[in-house]
Amino acid sequence: MMSFALFKATLKKNWLLLFIFFGVLFMYAAVIISMFNPDDIAQLISMLDAVPEDMLKAFGLTTAITNMTTYLASWLYGLLMTSLPMVYSIILANRLVAKAVDNGSMAYLLSTPNSRAKIIITQGLYALLSLAILSAALFGTGVAMCEAMFPGLLDIYAYLKLNVTTMLANIAVMMTAFFFSCLFNETRLSLGFGSGVPIAFLLITMLGNTSDQVKILKDLSIYGWYDPVKVVEGSNVLGLDLVYTGIIAVLFIAGVLIFKRKRLPL
Amino acid sequence: MIEVKDLTLTYPSGKGIFDVSFTVRQGEIMGYLGPNGAGKTTTIRALMGFMYLDRGTASINGLDCWSKATEIQRFLGYIPGEIAFPDGMSGDEFLKLMHDMRGTKDTKLQNRLLEMFELDPKGKIKRFSKGMKQKLGIVAAFMHDPQVLVLDEPTSGLDPLMQNRFVDLVLSEKQRGKTILMSSHIFEEVEKTCDNVLIIKEGRIVVHSDVQTLKASQRKGYVIRTKEAGAMVQALQAAGFEAGIVTEDAVEVFIIAQDADRFIKTISGFTIMDLDVKSQTLEEVFMQFYSREGER
To answer: B53 near B46, Cβ under 8 Å?
Structure first.
């Protein structure tokens, strides 16, 4: 099913990339959490009045900040927790398959008794697991920081629900980029489509957030199918989680099948 | 045993290989020659299972090269024509990865090969010279003692000493019954190791011959320096040799082995200042082969 030897080599080569993205997101989370001040909510809202409302909405920020959990859902999960993992996904997905085909080193992996499917499944699982670990680590450190600084203010269950949905959306985007990495033999095309499509998703979501008239745009984007604030306020996302899981599975299987059948210029 | 029958594999550009058929028996070394872009690497891609065929069949030890590619890798050694290693690895990490992915553990042969080619695999591969990378590729291809070897220009970038080591290695593997298909540009290497030679041109096999025949047909070129260049050319041409004037006091002449005696006698009457062997590349040797095939 998968090659542990290859998984180990992939981990060794790519853990630093994951660590850097974790570091940056952790820093943002720490700053945003520490900025929360239950007494100064009103002051924070008045500060935001100076900024046009549409622009705030584009960045996923809502002015109805009432508690810690919605505050984080808006400030952290409105844009940061999707856009940075998206950049990570674009870089990683291209590295895992297309780059090795483009530079020819895939020939060595295939000159061992491991099938193409096994190699792609190994690389895809690394992509998937690394994002899961990133989400888990950010969730864990986030909860710990909230509890240390503002004990009892965070609704941990709601926050977990939001983290799961965000993670699945991010993995769906990772698998989109991974699919293109399996489809194309050249880094140029893999990176072009693998970054173009996710960036388009993100921009469409930002645009859709600006006003109710263009809200329909959000339906076109993987990121636009949930509203972080509504998720923590209690909307049911189980169905959506299943949709994301389905997309992940379909893209993963499609990537493996395409790679298995195509001609490789090695 | 490598068996290829009516193999056709075309690229969208229309280039490719057409109706290629050959067999490499067990214990045989087949040289695979041809100009750049003739289709050598394409044939090897088909054998490695990197590309499916449009028509025909390709099999190694009875296993289909496309559908059974994974099984074939258990007893196959491969050197890519353009070696590219996974990024960011050191030489020993790479060899370890190959062992792990093959499920082999024994490093005895690996160490012997490293010693034979005087390669220290420590340090990042990125910093290796071209020759070192090639040596690493050779070690990776032979270290699991495969029964069949597919080698795409295995000595490119090696110095003559190491090329000889490689010839020794191939000959000793041959004695142990290995089946080898080897593409090459170096005539000496092919001459010393191969039993038979295939020559491919524009995607089609144009010559399938044993090495002795190829060798016998090899013309040797000489450059003779003499004051009587014009007269010498006339004498040589009259005797049926292919000769021409290079500069005003140098004559170029091509002969095949069996004409050596007649050649010496033809020019014995002239005053010769210098005699140089004009070395011929493998391409030149087989380009001749083509033209003679064409005349027939």
So the answer is: yes
H-helix or E-strand spanning residue A168: helix A156-183
Q: What does the pLDDT look like over A94-118, one tens digit per residue?
A: 999 999 999 999 999 999 999 999 9
Neighbours of A136 (CB within 10 A): 12
Min Cα separation B186/chain A (Å): 23
Judging contacts by C-beta atoms under 8 Å, the chain A residues touching residue B93 are 9
Inter-chain contact A105–B87, Cβ cutoff 8 Å?
Answer: yes
Kindly write down the DSSP assignment for every residue of B130-191, as one continuous string. Answer: HHHHHHHHHHHHHTT--SEEEEESTTTT--HHHHHHHHHHHHHHHHTT-EEEEE-S-HHHHH
- Determine the residue of chain A that is closest to B94 in CA distance: A9
Distance CA B189, CA B43 (A): 20
Q: pLDDT at residue B185 above 90?
A: no
Instruction: Write the DSSP symbol of residue A216.
Output: G
A74 or A53: which leads in pLDDT: A74
Residue B10 β-bridge partners: B16
Does residue A15 sit at the B interface (CB-CB below 8 Å)? no
* CB of A255 closer than 8 Å to CB of A181: yes
Per-residue pLDDT at B36? 83
Amino acid at A167: M
Return the residue of A nearest to B89 by Cα. A13
Q: What is the overall mean pLDDT for chain B?
A: 89
Q: What local confidence, expressed as pLDDT, does residue A66 receive?
A: 67
d(CA A197, CA A202): 9
Specify the pLDDT at position B290.
60
Instruction: Tell me the C-alpha distance between B205 and B199, whole Å.
Output: 6
Please say if the pLDDT value at position B296 is more than 50.
no
**How much is the ipTM here?**
0.84
Closest to A101 measured CA to CA, from A245, A241, A265: A265
The least confident of A47-56, A234-243, B76-85 is A47-56
Between B70, B87, B97, which is nearest A113 by CB?
Answer: B70
Say whether residue A8 is in contact with chain B using an 8 A CB cutoff. yes
Measure CB to CB from residue A104 to each of B71, B84, B94 and give the nearest one. Answer: B84
Higher pLDDT, A178 or B254: A178
Task: Classify residue B80 by burial, with Cβ atoms within 10 Å: 0-12, 13-18, 19+.
Answer: buried
B101, B133, B144, B151: best to mutate for the A interface, most A CBs within 10 A: B101
